[in-house]
Amino acid sequence: MTTESQRSAAVLDGELLGRLDRRRPGLLVGSLASGALALVFLYCWGYQIANGIGVTGINRPVFWGFYIINFVFWIGISHAGTLISAILRVTKAEWRRPVTRSAEAITLFALAIGGLFPLIHLGRVAIFYYMIPYPNSRMLWPNFRSPLVWDIAAITTYIIGSALYLFLPLIPDAAVMRDRAAAGLKKRFYAVLALGWRGTAQQWHSLEWGIRILAVAIIPVAVSVHTIVSWDFAMTQTPGWKSTIFGPYFVVGAIFSGIAVLMIAMALLRRGLGLGRFLTDRVFNNLGLLFVTMSLIWGYFTFAEHLTVWYSGDLFEKNVHHVLLHGDFAFPFWTMVVVNLVIPVAVLSFPRGRRPLPTALVGCGVLVGMWLERFLIVVPSLSTPRLAYSIGDYMPSWVELGIMIGAIGVFACLYFTFTQLLPIVSVWEMREGWRHGARGEGGATSGAAPNSATAAAPVPGGGAA
Amino acid sequence: MTAATDRRLVEAAFDQVEDVRAVVEAALESGVAASQVEVRSPAPLEDDELPLPKPKSRVLLFALAGAVLGGLTAFGLAAGTALAYPLPTGGMSIVAGPPVGVVTYEGTALGLILMTVLRVLWEGGRSEAAAAGRRTSIITSPTVACCSGSMV
Predict the structure, then answer these.
(1) 3-class DSSP state of B38
(2) Across the 152 residues of chain B, what is the mean pLDDT of every consecutive 10-residue run?
(3) Does B143 contact A at CB distance below 8 Å?
(4) Which CATH number fits domain A10-438: 1.20.1630.10, 1.10.3720.10, 1.20.1250.20, 3.40.50.300?
(5) Cα–Cα distance, A339 to A367 (Å, whole number)
(6) CA angle A131-A136-A137, nearest 5°?
(7) pTM above 0.90, yes or no
(8) Domain boundaries, chain A
(9) B20 CB near a chain A CB, below 8 Å?
(10) Contact residues, B window 80-139, toward A, CB-based 8 Å cutoff
């Protein structure tokens, strides 16, 4: 290894680990603001538990409202991380290195929040345990024929898998943090996380095997989760839901919305934490290309879904189709098309559009669009049922709005906390990538050679910062 | 290079892997068994970088065993509970393929994931080392490799 590369590693340590020792006002403000929103979430949920599900706008015939919309939305966002990170790991994309941990953390926190919404939707949250597979007093087990029970199985598997997939690569970095920390609570915290990691050849070998296997295993799990969520809808006879392509359509939408959150988070991290040397323009460019590809695939699925419904001529399906394209829901529908397809393609097709700010702005639009997509799946179909006398509408109450907005606060609060406690960019993976580059194994570096410890040293997956 | 010795242990820290390689080679030539040499590093080293036997791992084997175990458990849960309390199905099969398949699939994945992680932790000797977690340390200096062994 060269002296320059040693300096690069010193800079790497200083920039990625040193920042954890410093207090950042921006992060503190963000934590407080998100913490306040999290309190709104808790208050609204507590209010609902105390007063019953009647405080929501859910009523016949729209029995699934904001809670199920947000459930699908957050589960979709959870596909940001683990799935994208796993695919990039399996394909050995070098530019993944600064991205993976941030993405995996998004998955875990989004999944935790998404998993809460069915419980909130229950109203009487205490009866959740009916879904846990053990016999009740009448020796009845949960009905495994119900897609809702499949949801429990899939989400439980995914959340455990995602947590472990985040945790395993975190162990070596936690050990470094343990060794850097002064004696006290902080050191004990990192020591527990590090599980006695010493960095021996055997430990690295086992860890790499473990990460490799989890990366391969987690991809079909992630796909299954959103497929099963789609079956909550597609296994019914409800007009607008009974579709053979709902599984892949949901998976594509989930990855699409997941990338949107990832783009926003990375743009914020790059600016807020000064990680421009790691989250380089090259990373944004590559993710931007992936983003626009997913936008086009999403557009294709949307077109295919609506074309077949329209062509079938089925009366009940056409009723739902009509309110979507021309009726009460036309405005959100066409807004969704614009922000999910027209704007991403128009902006991200050009290299200048695949920079941090434009991609983050497009990501915000896509998040709105994907939320609208879930809204347009749930509400129009339920409010336009087969029996004309039961046509109804839906208006969310302040409790539902509070819980929806508060959930964003909970997510941000968890993410800010994680960012302040642990390296949001995997230090050992950056070192490894940089070593690959130094050994000439390709793809790792393309930056200018450093002249000093503070110069723009080669960064794995980097490029022009 | 820094070094510390006691009656049974020599531990040294190096900035460059090439130096570690030279020291390990010298130690092996002087009669130290390869099993007595331990190299610690802040990032994984390639197999060909040091003249030491490649570590072995049975993580894959245990992962597959976990998958089988998880799959069987989930199958038993889905199919067994349907048989234990048969619900009216209108002539359809009591143990239906698709639901049992979905639950078995998720159980297989869960078993695989859990067993993989448990085996990784086991092989790394975490359970033993965790107790001494605050005492152990790795070298955090840049580009480092650390060579230590039970050399007299």
Answers:
(1) strand
(2) 51 78 83 78 79 87 96 92 81 85 94 95 66 44 37 24
(3) yes
(4) 1.20.1630.10
(5) 9
(6) 160
(7) no
(8) 10-438
(9) no
(10) 81-82, 84-85, 87, 96, 99-100, 102-103, 105-107, 109-110, 112-114, 116-117, 119-121, 123-126, 128-134, 136-139
